[in-house]
Amino acid sequence: MARACTLIPGDGIGPDITDATLAILDAAGADFDWDRQVAGAAGVEQTGTPMPDETLDSIKRTRLALKGPLETPVGEGYRSVNVALRQTFDLYANVRPARDIVPGGRYDGVDIVLIRENTEDLYAGLEHYIRIGEDPQAAAESIALITRVGSERIVRYAFDYALRHGRKKVTLVHKANILKYSQGLFRAMGQKVAKEYEGKLAYDERIVDAAAMQLVLDPGRFDVLVTTNMFGDILSDLVSGLVGGLGLAPGSNIGRDAAIFEAVHGTAPDIAGQGIANPGALLLAACLMLDHVGDRFRADRVRRALESTIREGKVLTRDLGGSATTREFADAVISHLA
Ligand code: NAD
After folding, report:
1. Is residue 53 among the annotated active site residues?
2. Residue 268 C-alpha to ligand 1 middle, in angstroms?
3. 105 vs 19, which has greater pLDDT?
4. Collapsing DSSP states into helix, strand and coil, what is residue 22?
5. What is the reported pLDDT for 76?
6. Does any ligand 1 atom lie closer than 6 A to the CB of residue 70?
7. How far apart are CA 306 and CA 316, in angstroms?
8. C-alpha gyration radius of the chain
9. Could you tell me the distance, in angstroms and rounded to a whole number, from the CA of residue 66 to the centre of ligand 1?
């Protein structure tokens, strides 16, 4: 039976890459019953709000969404819908796999999954100014909230993910040498959970600064990484950079009651409406969604077709060094479906 899934094509290049992704998923036999909804700028245009109730109700019902990029006005205007969706549905795990597909890049053999805690730490929004004398904003304080419950659930998620995906090792990234309480708590929960997986998965730890250097020097030594919110935010872009940037970087936001899959990149206003965007990142996000609903077979089928198309190098979008349109690239991927 078809799996119900909310579909938010998004803004800018979103509708183009969504059409291409759906065409490829259809050709691969993926069985989704799409419930099309709007958010972001398209939401404002069609319903007067960037996060319409119908869209939220749809995700509550389907518990699954594939989402194109959404425009967030800089400085003023509405808050980021992406952040609001993460908070509304308590999507605590941000999962970003990074694997080198394009041959001849800076590194070969990179195959890393970075799992970032998505709700706590400095991003919990606990900030305030401190008045000193006449100056009401003499200092600012931001609280890095780390909880035992939040740490345990993200580390457990990382270990379960590693087991489910045939991975060998989980590396916990922290800064407990300096932040002995907050980062120390996260690390302690890592060690507790790791004991339960002894014999099944290897476990090690890195201090975040050393992890950043080692990722650049020798990314092949890492497998699954798990870390707190801000370190994860920074390291996940670093890891995307190792494999050629944002054009092929998918992400997922997973909670107990819902999961939202998306490309890491934005609405690409500079090329919007031209039909030349690379649909690869959204397609790979759809593959993560297929993995999530247990359809590894089709996920692997689509990933293999995308990789063959890129390795063959005949039909590539401009960001990959070619001149094909989004649709031509999608058709090439479809022709590689085995
Ligand atoms: P961007 O990712 O949209 O664009 C950065 C550069 O990468 C541009 O040159 C763009 O043309 C290129 N690019 C991005 N995706 C591409 C693709 N699929 N194919 C080919 N080239 C691609 O980043 P930005 O310009 O900083 O942000 C634009 C808008 O997107 C902003 O409103 C921002 O808030 C929003 N945004 C949304 C998300 C999201 O919804 N998850 C993420 C990031 C940015």
Report:
1. no
2. 4
3. 19
4. helix
5. 67
6. yes
7. 11
8. 20
9. 17
Contacts of 251 (CB under 8 A, 6+ apart): 94, 95, 96, 236, 261, 262, 263, 264, 285, 288
Catalytic entry in 92, 123, 157, 161 = 123
pLDDT band at 84 (very low <50, low <70, confident <90, very high): confident
Q: How confident is the model at residue 335 (pLDDT cuts 50, 70, 90)?
A: very high
Annotated active-site residue in 175, 223, 295, 331:
175
Protein residue closest via CA to atom 39 of ligand 1: 69
How far apart CA 20 and CA 279 sit, in angstroms, is: 6
Active site residue 169: no
Residue 152 neighbours by CB distance under 10 Å: 17
DSSP state of 244: T
121 tagged catalytic:
no
Amino acid occupying residue 329 = F
Q: Where are the beta strands (DSSP E) in the chain?
A: 3-8, 32-36, 64-67, 93-99, 111-117, 127-132, 135-142, 169-174, 202-207, 224-227, 250-254, 259-263
| Residue closest to 244 by CA, chosen among 146, 40, 130, 98 | 98
* Closest atom, ligand 1, to C-alpha of 70: 40
**Closest C-alpha residue for ligand 1 atom 13:** 268
3-state DSSP assignment of residue 4: strand
Query: Which pLDDT tens digit goes with each residue over 274-291?
Result: 999 999 999 999 999 999
Going by CA atoms, what residue is nearest to atom 7 of ligand 1? 268
Confidence of residue 173 (pLDDT cuts 50, 70, 90): very high
- Residue written as token pair 């999608």: 330
Task: Give Cβ neighbours of residue 74 (< 8 Å, ≥ 6 apart).
Answer: none
Ligand 1: does its nearest atom lie under 6 Å from the Cβ of 97? Answer: no
Q: Model confidence over 98-117: pLDDT tens digits?
A: 988 877 777 888 999 999 99
Report whether residue 278 contacts ligand 1, using a CB cutoff of 6 Å.
yes
